Amino acid sequence: MEIIRGLCSFEGRLAGTDAERRAANWLAERLRAQGRRAEIEPIYVHPQIGLILAAHCALGFGGS
């Protein structure tokens, strides 16, 4: 429960946000403190992918 509370304490933890990065680093540090190996692999995401897909659907629908 302590880990869940800790992760929930990062407000606005959406994909690609600073809060997500801080939460991942916090969790990795906890794992390292327990003697486990933890690596952070940053990736680039498009947070507005839903809008992009909706626009493509609308264009496809309009073109048909």
Q: Beta-strand percentage?
A: under 5%
Residue runs with pLDDT of under 50 for 5 or more positions: none
Arithmetic mean of pLDDT = 89
DSSP helix fraction: 55-70%
Shape designation: elongated
SSE sequence, one letter per element: HHH
Secondary-structure-derived class: mainly alpha
The number of distinct β-strands equals 0
What are the defining features of this structure?
single chain, about 60 residues, mainly alpha, 3 helices
Short description:
The protein is mainly α and 64 residues long.
Describe the fold and architecture.
There is one protein chain. This protein is 59% helix and 0% strand. The chain has 64 residues and is mostly helical. The longest helix has 16 residues, at 18-33. The chain is elongated and about 60 Å long.
SSE blueprint:
Blueprint: H1 2-8, H2 18-33, H3 49-63
